[in-house]
Amino acid sequence: MIPVSQLHKPIGLNSELAELVGVLLGDGCLSVSISPRHAIYAVAFTASTKEFQYYENFVKPTLESEFGIRGHLYLRKDNTTRYHVYCKELVSYLAGLGIPVGKKKDAAIPATILEHGLTIPFIRGFYHAEGSLYRRYSKAYNRHVKIYDNLGVIHSERS
Question: In CATH, which superfamily holds the domain spanning 4-134?
């Protein structure tokens, strides 16, 4: 557990934190486990082993530079990348941004991300965790709005 005195909170929301929140909503979770003896507060990420470099080069350094804390990054035998930070204050801070503690069944882009105009870095992080874009190339879908046109995503049209 990180002592509270070692955690410093960022002055404001920035693009790195917005991307981190996107990754957290995609590949991570906030958890609180309470037992009669103590409580454990964790920020945990699980991703493919292919994502290890991204975690090593972005997620871990972002948490270290923004909050002044270190976590544990490692590869598991089940072919996953794991990154854990145990810190009550960090869990509280991230929950305050709108990230649910526990299951994320009704998760959405946090309002604070939208209010600060940081939707694109958030989506970059969420996309890194979850995704791909797929568009059906069929005449039946030609009139669908291309919501990704304003996100800086490069796409091409097939004839």
Answer: Homing endonucleases (3.10.28.10)
For residue 158, give every residue at least 6 positions away whose Cβ sits within 8 Å of its Cβ, in sequence order, or none: 137
Amino acid at 60: K
φ, ψ at 80 (rounded to 5°): -130, 150
- Residue ranges of domains in the chain: 4-134
Per-residue pLDDT of the chain (159 residues; tens, 9 = 90+): 444 446 777 778 899 999 999 999 999 999 999 888 889 999 999 999 989 999 999 999 999 999 999 999 999 999 999 999 999 999 999 999 889 998 888 788 999 999 999 999 999 999 888 876 565 556 666 665 555 555 554 444 443
β-pairing, 39-48 with 80-86? antiparallel
User: Structure pTM?
Assistant: 0.77
The dihedral sign for the CA sequence 77, 78, 82, 86: negative
Q: Residue 118 corresponds to which amino acid?
A: L
